């Protein structure tokens, strides 16, 4: 006997079955039996439907979580674009992604990531003044030609030109640690202290800087020197005007003086003022080279 394919065929099939069967409960009702069959089948159908919905929701939730974890992994592992800021004859103020502020001196370069993830690391070639936003969970590091300065939140100045023989870190406020990248030696600075790293010897030393504010006078457009040697003045003027100033006389190089110049003064004007006071002459064998000689 073929299986019924419709309600009508089911009724006919049940009637045929009842006519060939002696029911102990009397006449067999196809309609009543069909209703009973439906009632028994419906709970199973509803249960299957509920299970199907729960399965669909679980799969969707798992898919959403997978996307979320994937996005987080991509966000933290993706290559971060590096931004590079270079200055020429002007200083420049920069705000970093964490809100820290950097004032970049003339002829300097700062590189930093577009966003800070687990660490806050910047690289400096030249001179810059840092005002670092506090974040104990993310220490701030400056890598500068052989040294690393580590801070939590503070104000300090770093002088680290690639052409110089030394790197200077002067603390104005807060606390910083300065470490030698070659041997790991580290020192902690307090306000008005300067760490000096000498590239030729790899020695890291510290001295008290009674005139620490002079280290950042360049931010106000002033070059200020207090009891500074001509050798150091020549070094700073070299960076300021992007030239090379050479002093061949050891005595002239060690001569100390106090001086103060405005940034809008030309190098020639500054040398003309210093020459009669210190006692030297100067000439330019090349356009970017100036030689100072002590007068006899």
From TrEMBL:
The keyword Transmembrane helix applies. InterPro entries: FecR (IPR006860), FecR_C (IPR032508), Ferrdict_sens_TM (IPR012373). The keyword Transmembrane helix applies. Residues 223-284 form the Protein FecR C-terminal domain. The chain crosses the membrane at residues 55-76. Pfam families: FecR (PF04773), FecR_C (PF16344). Residues 91-176 form the FecR protein domain. Keywords: Membrane, Transmembrane, Transmembrane helix. It comes from the Bacteria. This is FecR protein domain-containing protein.
């Amino acid at each position: 006997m073929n299986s019924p394919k419709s309600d009508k065929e089911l009724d006919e099939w049940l009637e045929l079955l009842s006519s060939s069967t002696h029911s102990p409960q009397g006449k067999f009702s196809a309609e009543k039996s069909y209703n009973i069959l439906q009632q028994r089948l419906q709970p199973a159908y509803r249960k299957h439907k509920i299970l199907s919905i729960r399965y669909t929701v679980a799969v969707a939730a798992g898919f959403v979580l997978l996307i979320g974890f994937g996005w987080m992994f991509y966000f933290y592992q993706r290559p971060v674009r590096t931004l590079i800021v270079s200055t020429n004859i002007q200083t420049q103020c920069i705000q970093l992604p964490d809100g820290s502020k950097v004032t970049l001196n003339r002829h300097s370069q700062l590189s930093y990531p577009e966003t800070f993830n687990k660490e806050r690391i910047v690289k400096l070639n030249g001179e810059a003044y840092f005002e670092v936003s506090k974040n104990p969970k993310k220490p701030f590091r400056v890598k500068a030609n052989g040294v690393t300065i580590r801070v939590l939140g503070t104000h300090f100045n770093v002088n680290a030109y690639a052409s110089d023989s030394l790197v200077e870190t002067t603390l104005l406020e807060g606390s910083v640690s300065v470490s030698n990248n070659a041997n790991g030696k580290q020192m902690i600075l307090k306000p008005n202290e300067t760490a000096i790293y000498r590239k030729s010897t790899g020695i890291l030393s510290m001295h008290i800087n009674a005139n620490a504010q002079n280290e950042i006078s360049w931010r106000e457009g002033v070059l200020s020197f207090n009891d500074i040697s001509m050798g150091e003045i020549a070094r700073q003027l070299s960076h300021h005007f992007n030239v090379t100033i050479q002093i061949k006389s050891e005595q002239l190089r060690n001569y100390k003086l106090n001086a103060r110049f405005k940034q809008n003064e030309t190098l020639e004007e500054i040398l003309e003022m210093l020459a009669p006071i210190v006692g030297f002459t100067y000439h330019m064998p090349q356009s970017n080279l100036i030689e100072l000689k002590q007068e006899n």
